[in-house]
Amino acid sequence: MFEPIILLQILWTGIATSAPFVLLTVGFSLTLKVTGLWNFAQSGQMAIAFYTMFFAMNGLGLPLFAAVGLGVVMTAGSAVLIEIYGLQVFRDRQSGNLMFFIFTLILSEFVIYVITLLFGTEPETLYKSILSPVDIIGGIAVSEWDKTGIGLTILALGALYGFMRYTKEGQFLAAVADNAKLAELYGISAQRAYRVVAVISALFIVAAMYLIGSHGGIVPNSPLELVLSAVIGTLLGGIGRVFAAAWASIFLALIQSFSILFIGSRWQNLLLYGFLFATILLFPRGVRMPRLRLALIGR
Amino acid sequence: MTSHFALHRRHVLGGAAAAALTSPLAAGAQSKEPIKIGSALPLTGSQAGYGNDFATGTRMAVKDVNDAGGIAGRPVELVVLDTQADPQLGINALNRFIGVEKLPMFLTAWSAVVKAQAPIANREKVLELNCGANSPEIATLGDYVYTAFPLAEVDIVKLANYVFTTLGKKTVAVLYINNDTGIDAAKLYRDTFTAAGGKIVAFEAYDPKATEFTGMLLKARAANPEIVHLHGLTADTPQVIAQMRQLGMTQRVTSYSAAYNPKLLEQLGPAAEGLIVTSLAPGVNDNPNVAGFLERWKKEQGRVPNGLPYVQYEYDMVFLVKALYEYLDKKSQPATGESLIAALLAIKEFDLPMTGKMIIDGHRVNKPVYLLTVQKGVFVPLATLT
């Protein structure tokens, strides 16, 4: 099991498997950074994203690009509606954090119940076949799904980085994230920022659900598990550190994958909860790497 | 004592539907107090695809029995409660059967649920009749727990021996889901194969919620088995096989009746070729009633059932219950947990329309095992193990 080829395979598959979780974590973490909310309604949006694409492809027979487009419209639309008619109402009422938490959680459950009634509870996949063509590269099995997942994630993260750094809208998001009231004094609309971040998160959710739904079966309850992995990545990366949360998700996936060398497969999922527990207790603000002190090295 | 309930194709096809309105037997039956049959099945959740079809199979049988005059002149009423294949919900369902419906017996399935319900059934002296779960432990759950479905020791033992002796495979990797369905069956497979002279080169369990199996499969690949036995559920089995093929594992896969599922063929395409599954009920070539039943199912549901062999058992359970009640009726005994068990053991041998002859052997049932393999995208008969 410790042969280089096996270790490389675990490394590659671990990275590829982390792709959808990275996307979900970034969407969740960005929302938390800008709005200051643990938005559990995102699990409902995950369900909307997947089942819209599923219905579009399998019920209406639409091609992939149209199904994804419809998924984006429905997910982003629901996110904006939740923002305007739900979260903003609570903000106007100056409700406490607990109220937001309860609202988003109940909303997710509601959406999932509706989807259960509409689509049933059998595991569904976007494509009829879950097999992805495989190339053997240097002895490592590299599937089309792996390449799509990694490519899509790099593209999404690059686009987000560019948006946040080089566009005015992105800088407004950063300003609102830092101090919403101060940003408004400078003429930046916090409400607009919240809606923009809702749309961006929806795009990340659709991308992630496409990847998950083309790899294996999804039931309406699956997003409740998925949002938990986004929470763990967000906590581990540190609240407000979106790209660190993405790295944390990759790290978690790799830890899970490599753990097979030392523990039985059935214990792998338990590791996630172990990390969540340890992070909350020991690193409530996330794990921060020590910075190199160049000045000291220079002396 | 033997009860005969051989159904003919015409009967199964629903000719009885007309009789429902015209038969004096049926008319008489409707005016008497109904006999309620309780059935605890997963109607929602990840196992609902099977659970709902099981319930449909039972409903069809109830209709046929009612159309033919009911049980001892009384109509049959089916009470199906949802368990989501979850032990706690299974207990809730049983409490309702006992407390609200006042039933002396009930039908159940899914190993974890059957086990969770057993202590209550024993305490309340209610006959718990398993008709779909296969954990070997079910035979030891107590005086009021019986099975009409062959436990894993029937098909798994025969399959493991078949793999060793007929297929000539000497090394096997056993991969299984880490729950009541997988654990006991995997151990049984391991012990049988080892006792036959074979070697288990990998024995790995996976989490029921897992979606990524690469690590486990790499372990199995490193062990270089001649064949892989996979004991999972309907949701995870296709994913494990798909990922296995993607990692370049070309070994033949064996599984059990949960993998005898048309959806699996759709999801796996050519990757399913060579898969061997077990069925504990006769197929269309073995029993003419099954062909009629399938035809009727397709007509009413517009598709084939999920887990046909299980559905056949679910259908037959109504006829088994009919035999028990008619036995008690002849003896003018009330239906209680004790009297129903006494009837079950006294009748012992049942001739059922979909699954054929069934012999209740204490807390176990022995049946032939039908092996099927995937050839050119369809399940075809491979062997019958008696």
Q: How is the biggest beta sheet of chain A arranged?
A: 2 strands, antiparallel
Tally the helices of chain A: what do you get?
12
- Assigned CATH class of chain A: Mainly Alpha
Biggest sheet strand order of chain A reads 1-2
Which segments of chain A are poorly predicted (pLDDT under 50) over 5 or more consecutive residues? 292-299
Mean pLDDT value of chain A = 88
Q: Over the alpha carbons, how many angstroms does the gyration radius of chain A reach?
A: 20 Å
Number of domains of chain B: 2
Number of strands of chain B: 16
Assembly of the depicted chains: heterodimer
Calculate Rg of chain B over CA atoms.
Answer: 21 Å
CATH level-1 class of the largest domain in chain B: Alpha Beta
The name of the CATH architecture of the largest domain in chain B is 3-Layer(aba) Sandwich
Strands of the largest sheet of chain B, in order across it? Answer: 3-2-4-5-6
Provide structural commentary.
The complex is a heterodimer of chains A (299) and B (386). Helices cover 74% and strands 3% of the residues of chain A. Chain A has a single domain (4-298), classed as ABC transporter involved in vitamin B12 uptake, BtuC. Chain A is mainly alpha-helical and 299 residues long. Chain A has a two-stranded antiparallel ribbon with strand order 1-2. Mean pLDDT of chain A is 88; it is low at 292-299. Chain B is globular, with a radius of gyration of 21 Å. Chain B has helices spanning 9-22, 24-31, 48-67, 87-99, 111-124, 152-165, 180-196, 214-223, 237-246, 262-268, 288-301, 308-330, 337-347, and strands at 2-4, 35-41, 76-82, 105-108, 127-130, 145-147, 171-177, 199-206, 227-231, 252-254, 276-279, 349-352, 356-361, 364-366, 369-375, 378-385. Helix content of chain B is 45%, strand content 22%. With 386 residues, chain B is α/β, with parallel strands linked by helices. Residues 1-28 of chain B have low confidence and may be disordered. Chain A binds chain B through residues 1, 3, 6, 9-10, 13-14, 17, 116, 120-123, 125, 128-132, 134, 136, 141, 143, 212, 215-217, 219, 221, 225, 256-261, 264-270, and chain B through 44-46, 48-49, 178, 204-207, 209-216, 218-219, 222, 234-235, 238-239, 242, 245-248, 266-271.
